[in-house]
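Many introductory courses stop at the sequence. We go one step further.
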Amino acid sequence: MPHKKYLIILFIFLLGWSTAPAQSRKFKIGFQFGYVNRNNSVKFYPNNSFANINNKDGWGIDLGLAGYYLFNEKFHFRFSPTTEFIEEKFIFNYNGINEELTFGYTYLKWPLHIIITPLKNAPLGIVCGASGNIEIVNNPSNPSDKLKFKRYESFIESGLNYRFITKLCEIIPEFKYALALTDGAGDKGTEYGRAIQKIYKNNWALTLYFR
């Protein structure tokens, strides 16, 4: 991981804790980091130029803040602006030769979630919401001359979390699945682009929230 990403982690950590005095009984602020795995749903044109196309699952990390509004003990609202660093690969086979295209993305994500805790004696939360993402860094190493995707994405998300209370803070591990609503297929000006009819960049994430 590049040094600048360590600086981002440190910045988010300090910012999260520096805002602690401003918190109240209803409003809480914290930070988060997580692992993301992409499970793309791809539809190829049947008469493309390649013998085989393989899209390997992408992976990455999320870093961000999390602001909560607590309506009551059982119903919370969360807004968590996040920076996501993710990588994915496409392998195109032409005349028995594999060509691997690797893409690295940096997204700014704007997820909104409601969290419902239905059980009286267990802080198990049901999470549902939506997110809009936009690519904020144009990675010069991406093979954009061969294959381009749209810079924006949208998702509906659902999952579960569990809240652990310590003396310092609350630690909330969370698992959620994001179903893509936006077709990410982009420019059709190359033979690579003309091979991909539709791509929906679904993903699942395992995240730790601290507040």
